[in-house]
Design goal:
single chain, mainly alpha, 2 domains, Phageshock_PspB, transmembrane, membrane
């Protein structure tokens, strides 16, 4: 029995501890990735935000037509400078799907 104690000590140090560490490193890496469900949700949220932005532009145009003193607090509608980030995001989504925009 006394001969097995050093064997178990060495085995736990060189086999057990690395196995535990690598197990949790693998769990950590897989948990940090975005799943396909997350990607679908992000794309739906992006489409919703895009529709809401278009609706805000419409509401601001309607209010501005009724009230000439109205100054929108948001960025101006459909300016190319403001839409650069949206175009980059749409390009990335198209490349992810394998299509070109």
């Amino acid at each position: 029995m006394d001969d097995l104690i050093p064997f178990f000590a060495v085995a736990s140090i060189f086999i057990g501890l690395p196995w535990i560490v690598l197990h949790y490193v693998t769990k950590w890496k897989t948990a940090a990735t975005i799943t396909t469900d997350d990607e679908v949700l992000l794309e739906e949220l992006y489409q919703l935000a895009k529709r809401l932005d278009e609706r805000m532009d419409t509401v601001e145009r309607l209010v501005a037509s009724d009230n000439p003193d109205f100054k929108p607090a948001r960025i101006h509608a459909d300016r190319e400078v403001d839409n650069v980030q949206l175009h980059e995001l749409e390009k990335m989504l198209a490349e992810k799907k394998g299509t070109r925009a």
